[in-house]
């Protein structure tokens, strides 16, 4: 096993390929993401939460709540509003004693008024 590892066999980790902007535009234009029925709306929300807040596992999506400790809306005067997401726990940081000193993931998502594709109500 050591000999094979030194050669680099089996040492590559699988990584998910990121969506390009063109691929995301195609999904919105094909109505794969929209709000015209409940299933599509849920799919759209899951996609946007993963894209904007970096949510990975299904449990992270289910634990997401709009509460001040997790998601806060900031509206600075004279600037565009933004959302601040701070995780409670995730699949890799579950909040036990050995995770006390691990910093929680914090993501800031700024709105883009020029882009209509992220506006759920857009036609």
Automatic annotation (TrEMBL):
ZMYM2-like/QRICH1 C-terminal domain: residues covered: 20-111
Region described as Disordered: spans on this chain: 95-123
* Ranges of Basic residues composition bias in the record: 97-108
InterPro entries from the xrefs? ZMYM2-like_C
The family database entries (Pfam families) matched by this protein are listed as: DUF3504
UniProt keyword list: Isopeptide bond, Phosphoprotein, Ubl conjugation
**Stated name of the protein:** ZMYM2-like/QRICH1 C-terminal domain-containing protein
Organism of provenance = Patella caerulea (Rayed Mediterranean limpet)
The top of its lineage is: Eukaryota, Metazoa, Spiralia, Lophotrochozoa, Mollusca
């Amino acid at each position: 096993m050591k000999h094979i590892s030194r050669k680099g066999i089996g040492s590559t980790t699988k990584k998910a390929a990121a969506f390009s902007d063109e691929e995301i535009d195609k999904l919105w234009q094909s109505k794969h993401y929209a709000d015209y029925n409940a299933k599509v709306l849920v799919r759209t929300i899951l996609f946007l939460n993963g894209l904007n807040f970096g949510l990975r596992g299904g449990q992270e999506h289910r634990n997401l709540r709009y509460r001040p400790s997790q998601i806060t809306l900031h509206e600075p005067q004279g600037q565009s509003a933004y959302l601040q997401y701070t995780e409670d726990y995730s699949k890799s940081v579950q909040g036990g004693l050995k995770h006390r000193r691990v910093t929680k993931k914090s993501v800031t998502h700024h709105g883009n008024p020029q882009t209509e594709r992220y506006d759920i109500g857009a036609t």
